[in-house]
Structures are given as structure tokens and as C-alpha cells.
Write a structure and sequence with these properties.
Distance between the termini: 24 Å
Shape: globular
Strand order of the largest sheet: 2-5-4-3-7-6-1-9-8
Structural class: mainly beta
Largest sheet: 9 strands, mixed
CATH class: Mainly Beta
Helix content: under 10%
Number of domains: 1
CATH superfamily: DNA-binding pseudobarrel domain
Order of helices and strands: EEHEEEHEEEE
Length: 146
């Protein structure tokens, strides 16, 4: 397993809360490499969670997002078996992304997670290694040189 420096996701209407559904936050794939970016949650606990501090440089705001593993299925108490990052609605509204833009979570050299939005048409040139995953997710491995 690797520890990615950056994870990003192409934003959908559900992520931005414009479909009228009651989805709670951004779904995080159960890919071990993506999960390595976030704090470890104990799957033996029922719906384990923790708060993740995120800074949005574009707005200057700091957010306490909730990283949660809804695991009722693995505990024989329901159907859910998914990771989510919740508390993102106001943060995303303040950042102003559109459907098709990407949200990137970058761990800087101080360990602080920064969230930025990349417009859909933006291209990123990088010498970093990037892996494209399902559901619009990408992870980037690079040396930290900030």
C-alpha cells in the first residue's frame, strides 16, 4: 500500500447537492491506496469516524470534515458498506465548483490537508505518478517539495 500525497475526484451533481437527494457527503472508494490518505478507521467498530481538518486556501477557511465508515452490513445490522467524507456541503458552496470540476485534497509538507478546486478544462502538468480509479477518483504520488 502507498500513501498518496493527493487524492482528487471529479465532482458530480450528487457531490454538489444539486440533485435533491439526501446523500451524505462524498463517497470514498474502498481502494486501499485512497483510504491510506485518510486516517485509519477501525472496521471492528460500528460506523467508526473521525474529524479531518481541511484548509481551503482559496477562501482562507478551515473546516472540520467527518470521515466515516458506514459499515452496518459488515456488522449484520443493515446494508451499508461505504466510506464517506461528510460536512462538505458548505465548503463546496464556498469554493464554487461546477459539475465536472475536480476537488483535490493535498497533504502539504506540514501534513495539513488542503482542498482546492480544479476547473474541468484545467490541465495539470506534473512529474508525479498518477493513478486513475473508478468513480472519478485519482491519486497522485510525488515527492513533497513545497
Amino acid at each position: 500500500m502507498i500513501a498518496p500525497r493527493e487524492v482528487s475526484k471529479v465532482l458530480t451533481p450528487n457531490d454538489l447537492g444539486i440533485t435533491g437527494t439526501h446523500q451524505a457527503g462524498i463517497a470514498i472508494p474502498r481502494d486501499p491506496d485512497i483510504l491510506a490518505f485518510f486516517p485509519r478507521l477501525d472496521p471492528t467498530q460500528y460506523n467508526p469516524d473521525c474529524h479531518v481538518a481541511v484548509h481551503t486556501p482559496a477562501t482562507g477557511d478551515h473546516w472540520q470534515l467527518r470521515f466515516v465508515y458506514y459499515n452496518s452490513k459488515t456488522h449484520g445490522q443493515g446494508t451499508r458498506n461505504e466510506y464517506r467524507l461528510t460536512g462538505t456541503t458548505q465548503m463546496l458552496r464556498d469554493m464554487g465548483p461546477r459539475v465536472g470540476d475536480s476537488i483535490s485534497f493535498l497533504r502539504n509538507r506540514f501534513g495539513v490537508i488542503e482542498a482546492t478546486v480544479r476547473p474541468q478544462e484545467a490541465t495539470v502538468s506534473s512529474t508525479a505518478t498518477e493513478r486513475i480509479l473508478k468513480n472519478g477518483w485519482r491519486l497522485t504520488i510525488s515527492d513533497i517539495k513545497d
